[in-house]
Amino acid sequence: MSDTQLADWRNHALTLESEVNKVVVGQETPVRLITTSIFARGHVLLEGDVGVGKTTLLRAFSRGIGGAYQRIEGTIDLMPNDLVYHTYLGEDGKPHVSAGPLLMSGENLSIFFFNEINRARPQVHSLLLRVMAERSLTAFNKEHYFPHMLVFADRNQVEKEETFDIPSAARDRFMMEIPIAVPSDPAILESLVFDTRYHDVDALVGKLPVDLLQFDQLNGFAATLQNSISASPTLRNYVLDLWRATKTPTDFGVKITGVDMNRLVLSGASPRGMGMVLRAARVNAWLNNRTAVLPEDVHAVFHSTVAHRLVFSPVYEMRRTEIAREMLSGIINAIATP
Amino acid sequence: MRTPFLLALCALSMANQAVYADIILPDVGAKYVSLKQINPSRDAGYVVGDVLDRTIILDVKKPYELVKESLPIEGYEHRYRGQISGIELIKISHQESNSSEGVNHELQLRYQVFTTGKLAKPAALRAEIVKLRNTNSKEIVQYRIPSYSFRISPLSVFGAVKLKEEMSPFVPPLFLDDQADLMQLSLAIATLSLSLLGLLYILGVHAWLPRMGAPFAKAYRDIRKMPDNEAGIQEAATRLHAALNKTAGGVLFSSNLDQFIKNKPVYAPLNQELERFFSLSSLVFFAPVAHTHLGVSPKLWLQQFCRQLRDCERGLLPNVKNKVSQ
């Protein structure tokens, strides 16, 4: 692919980003990370409180990308088959079977939003694991494919009742875990509360231009993009050091106040996780009009791609978000490049 | 016949002399003679063979005059209660000067100790008696120069001596042999000096001069020796990164450059150069195919940049002439 095509795609991506930022205000960093994950073809776990705009954000992206958008709410009684089909008695009095949210859009499914994923049972997580990893599903004696699908799930880490912790294997399938926080800018907060255009989400999202990107071309372009952005030997060594530090932070002098670093980490980032770090870093470099990955590109995606993959001792799990943030910042501050 | 006669004459003469010496003359009036004496500076610790000098200044007023024949005689052995005292006058010199009121006589007396003992014992420079003649009445009177007491010590001490009991306030303290102590003190001072030098070297972060071992000073010395080729450029940039990280107290990236300048405002004059360095570093390490556009050799630029950082490190303004335009 020529430099011109790369530039054209970048302009489209930046336009999408810009348009989404008009709809969901004060979330520039999450918007950049979601854009990155879209072009890196990675699934995203959103973390945030209720009512901070997660659904609006996804709907805006879905509209911009094109393709179908499906959504399901995680509940304690949700079963895997609820994602695939549901049965009902028709007007004719006979039982009928119709496709569930996963199958409903077929191969055109571009975004599948799993709301409150931690309320679903592990059986549901298992099904989702396969769908996320293989982008395929066997149902009704047939293999269904979702080649363009990206899974966006969200979870509320504050509420713990009637929830199931997402196992580390499932977390590892997500390329990023992106925190969605309430904006701190008072002017934005005032707009969100008093500006009536933010009260009607349908109208708000409806203003976004449709199909800024072609969802069915994203896979092809993403592969080309990954091949176009280089990673020098120095950067590779740096990333390998970062990886090693997630496993044994004490070897790199990383310390966290009040935490026994020798007992903290049960498992660091996985090889798949570090691969995703590089995929995301390449996209970030491309979005910043670079042809090579710099350490800054790695830093831009490091927290969101690695934090949710770390497995801590149970005693530290309750403080996971805070400790992971501090540990990863410590790693970045401890490892020199070159 | 002649020998007995001579013996008889000598005996008579000695008898007359003895009679004359026993005559007690009256003392001169105190108003006619004034005395000033300069005695030895110490009055103890003399041993056999020691010499004591004594100066007597007599001011004899008219009408009296000193009978010079009455002055002490050299070699005269003084006796005390019939015993030879062992203090002998070995030299006497006499000077006189006239004045309108009388004559001033200065007598220089030198005595030598010819006695000793097993223990310290008292002794005295005898009281000399001189005679004065009244020039008018021809009367002979005497004047007694007071004695001077001192102590004679034995040459060696016999038996056990308890210093506490034997110490005299007149005897100065004995000096101990301090050569060994002086040697030890010298060694200790030398060791201490070497230790202080070592401490200075360690505290100076392995440098003798202040800030000589500072990160950029060391980096500059290293970079100057590096070759001007691709490997040298990478090595120089790595060395500069290490110095920057050490100065910043963490890994410095272009993204936290503002914070670094805020924490270390002394480097603020090089803000643009720092950004340029990170651009160069990115090109050197992460995008080797790109061109640097520095206008000079990157190695030279890095060397000059490091020197500017070193100047800032030393609290100096960096040499802007070295600034290389991009």
Question: How would you sum up the major sheet of chain B?
Answer: 5 strands, antiparallel
| Helix and strand element order of chain A | HHEHEHEEHEHEEEHEHHHHHEHHEHH
What share of residues of chain A is helical? 40-55%
- Low-confidence sequence ranges of chain B: 15-20
What is the name of the CATH topology of the largest domain in chain B? Immunoglobulin-like
CATH class category label of the largest domain in chain A:
Alpha Beta
Distance between the termini of chain A: 31 Å
| Strands of chain A, total number | 11
Q: In percent, how helical is the residue content of chain B?
A: 25-40%
From the alpha-carbon coordinates, what is the Rg of chain B to the nearest angstrom? Answer: 48 Å
Annotated CATH topology of the largest domain in chain A: Rossmann fold
The CATH class assignment of the largest domain in chain B is: Mainly Beta
Looking across the biggest beta sheet of chain A, what order are the strands in? 2-5-8-1-9
Describe this protein's structure.
The complex is a heterodimer of chains A (338) and B (326). With 338 residues, chain A is α/β, with parallel strands linked by helices. Chain A has 2 domains: 3-76 and 106-218, P-loop containing nucleotide triphosphate hydrolases (Rossmann fold), CATH 3.40.50.300; 229-334, Helicase, Ruva Protein, domain 3 (Orthogonal Bundle). Chain A is 49% helix and 16% strand. Chain A has 16 helices and 11 strands. Chain A has helices spanning 3-23, 28-40, 54-65, 80-84, 101-104, 122-134, 168-173, 186-194, 201-206, 218-228, 233-247, 261-264, 271-287, 295-306, 314-317, 320-334, and strands spanning 43-48, 68-73, 85-89, 95-99, 109-115, 136-139, 142-145, 150-155, 174-180, 265-267, 311-312. In chain A, strands 2-5-8-1-9 form a 5-stranded parallel beta sheet. In chain A, strands 3-4 form a two-stranded antiparallel sheet. In chain A, strands 6-7 form a two-stranded antiparallel ribbon. In chain A, a hairpin with a 5-residue loop joins strand 3 (85-89) and strand 4. In chain A, helix 2 packs across helix 13 (271-287). In chain A, 41% of the residues are buried. Chain B is rod-shaped, with a radius of gyration of 48 Å. Chain B has helices at residues 2-21, 163-166, 179-203, 215-224, 230-248, 257-263, 271-285, 298-313; strands at residues 33-38, 51-61, 64-66, 77-80, 83-98, 102-113, 121-125, 129-134, 140-144, 148-152. Chain B has 8 helices and 10 strands. By secondary structure, chain B is α+β, with helices and mostly antiparallel strands. The interface between A and B is medium-sized, with 20 and 18 residues.
